[in-house]
Design goal:
globular, Cytochrome C Oxidase, Chain A, two-stranded antiparallel ribbon, mainly alpha, 18 helices, disordered N terminus
């Protein structure tokens, strides 16, 4: 038997701990991102539950003021940087090469470095709990709350260093996926045949490449203020806190679209599959996503209407904020049109996708209200804004990502996930979400400011706060149902079929889970819906059974030899060196120098490590003269 022969379904997730630490396979890295994000989802959720317990009744004393400030800072930072972004990255890593017909990403080792850099950055952030000094200035870190004068502890240092490290991971990942999408598509896959999820991912990568440099500059200025005594944000020395707001929100509002566009892409894949009809107006959906990304850089100062920018600036940013509603509305109407007249199958992914559309509409409408400076000034820093934020991020991003998790779960795990528990998860979460966040609109209009840890009994806020707290615990129950469902699925011995949803795109042409090499034969694409074209022919009504040319399911074994990049320990060691370099600023100069030396050494060895070595993954027939 050839040494290079392979089984039809190689054991993708086999191997010990070392195989996971040194992997460069995009699918395993996607799993690592997903597991990390779900773990931090629980951590951030526990922080939110403590916040809600503190606010459930007037003059409660569950936690003190300082602890409350630390909790909402860590909750916001965790949910944005440790949950929503890496959960999107999990789907990007696993699905993009499969959806475009590639065997891996363009730079597999850089991909591994990106994950481990994120991981060590997240560990550094949470180490602040163990030294008793978590950050307490909000996830937005407004100056001068972060200055040494008002915040002399180490919490802000942990925060700024860890977020900078995770920013490096995001930029590296963005470069990788931009190159992958633009250069590694299967033959025949023109840009207008690229799946909508991949298109939205491409827009997200461009946004990260453009948005992360300003926040990096903001963090460098803050680091210099705190470590070297400069005065970029100190008014008494000629600096200005408004500089931080501009730099932060030039990143912060594109960040909103970095978080929501992946969910838009997921919904644009799920709805056509379960409506059994092509996505309505797909080209308009593509261009509306691009326009959202472009306009996202022109709306940052609508977060700053209360800072006194002046009538001209307020007018410009108000108009830009109203304008960005147009491409967003295009997406919503096209999703509705996709469902209209379809042969709808009510499965769990569809529930979450439709739920995302409805809940995001509520968040979007309250966002349009804030395009008006007088309305924004009235509601600024009130719980109305908290409600808006969570309807966008939780109702939009979280529900959309759960649609993707349920949709691609059988592809990733090779197991189906329970429909009954999945629908129970949805209904508990949608009821809990509305119970939690809709009352916050009333609290905000009644004058309750955000970021307060207690309130007096005569203000009349206790009823809505108690309802919100009950809703938060209902969300927690729904997440517990999901984890039970996931555990039952993973324990099942029933193999999921390659195409359980009767879907249209390339990832469903391979086994579940996919083989390590993805495709035994690189597919040729001649449609935006290549698998549907093969199964049903060139008709809008896919219920007909006329066979036609398209992209068929993959053969069991590759007909030619496939070489894959060898595992490498240098990406994880380089990421560790980077974490030591950044975190070393909290210890001393010697640690910074040691981390820099480790980083340089590992990058050097990484650069000169050959792509192939004895025992690296090969599949298919042995080369001529191969061993047996």
């Amino acid at each position: 038997m050839s040494a290079h022969a392979t089984a039809a379904h190689p054991p993708l997730y086999a191997g010990g701990l070392r195989s996971w630490l040194t992997t460069v396979d995009h699918k395993r890295i996607g799993v690592l991102y997903g597991v990390s994000a779900l773990f931090y989802f629980v951590v951030g959720g526990v922080e939110a539950l403590i916040i809600r317990l503190q606010l459930a009744s007037p003059t409660a004393d569950v936690v003190g003021a300082d602890t409350f400030n630390q909790l909402f800072t860590m909750h916001g930072t965790t949910m944005v940087f440790l949950v929503l972004m890496p959960l999107s990255a999990a789907l990007f890593n696993y699905m993009i090469p499969l959806m475009i017909g590639a065997r891996d990403v363009a730079f597999p080792r850089l991909n591994a470095f990106s994950f481990w850099t994120f991981f060590f950055g997240s560990v550094l952030l949470n180490l602040s709990f163990f030294v008793g000094d978590p950050p307490d200035a909000g996830w937005f870190g407004y100056a001068n709350l972060t200055s040494k004068q008002y915040n002399p502890g180490m919490g802000i240092d942990f925060w700024l260093l860890s977020v900078q490290i995770m920013g490096i991971a995001s930029i590296a990942s963005a470069v990788n996926f931009t190159v992958t999408i633009l250069n590694m598509r299967a033959p025949g896959m023109s840009l207008m045949r690229v799946p909508l999820f991949v298109w939205m991912a491409l827009v997200v990568q461009v946004l990260m490449l453009l948005a992360f440099p300003p926040i990096t500059v903001a963090f460098i200025f803050l680091m210099f203020d705190r470590f070297f005594g400069t005065h970029f944000y100190i008014p008494s020395a000629g600096g200005t806190p408004i500089l931080w707001q501009h730099l932060f929100w030039i990143f912060g509002h594109p960040e909103v679209y970095i978080l929501i566009l992946p969910s838009f892409g997921v919904v644009s894949e799920v709805l056509p599959t379960f409506a059994r009809k092509p996505l309505f107006g797909a080209p308009f959906m593509i261009f509306s996503g691009i326009l959202i990304g472009f306009l996202g850089f022109g709306v940052w100062s609508h977060h700053m209407f209360t800072t006194g920018l002046g009538a001209v600036a307020d007018t410009a940013f108000s108009l830009a904020t109203m304008l960005i509603a147009i491409p967003t509305g295009v997406k919503i109407f096209n999703w509705i049109a996709t469902l209209w007249g379809g042969h709808i199958r009510f499965r769990t992914p569809l529930y979450f996708a439709v739920g995302m559309v409805g809940l995001f509409i509520i968040g979007g409408l309250s966002g349009i209200m804030h395009a008006s400076p007088p309305v924004d000034i009235q509601q600024h820093d009130s719980y109305f804004v908290v409600a808006h934020l969570h309807y966008v991020f939780f109702g939009g991003t979280v529900f959309g990502l759960f649609a993707g998790i349920y949709y691609w779960w059988p592809k990733v795990t090779g197991r189906m996930i329970g429909e009954g528990l999945g629908k129970l998860h949805f209904w508990l979460m949608v009821v809990g979400m509305n119970l939690t966040f809709f009352p916050m609109h009333f609290l905000g209009l009644d004058g309750m400011p955000r970021r307060i840890y207690t309130y007096a009994t005569d203000l009349g806020w206790e009823r809505w706060n108690m309802i919100a707290t009950v809703g938060a615990f209902l969300i927690a129950v729904s997440v517990l149902v999901f984890f039970v469902n996931a555990a039952r699925s993973l324990a099942s011995k029933t193999q999921a079929p390659a195409d359980p949803w009767d879907a249209a795109t390339l990832e469903w042409t391979v086994s579940s889970p996919p083989p390590e090499y993805n495709f035994a034969v690189v597919p040729t694409v001649n449609s935006a819906r290549p698998f549907w074209l093969h199964k049903y022919g060139p008709t809008r009504d896919i219920s007909t059974r006329t066979k036609a040319q398209g992209t068929p399911a993959q053969p069991d074994n590759p007909p030619t030899r496939i070489d894959l990049p060898s595992p490498s320990s240098w990406p994880i060691l380089a990421a560790l060196g980077l974490a030591l370099l950044g975190g070393g600023a909290l210890v001393g100069l010697w640690m910074v120098l040691f981390g820099a030396a480790v980083l340089v050494f590992c990058v050097y060895r990484w650069a000169f490590q050959p792509l192939e070595r004895t025992g690296h993954p090969t599949f298919g027939p042995a080369p001529s003269g191969g061993s047996s």
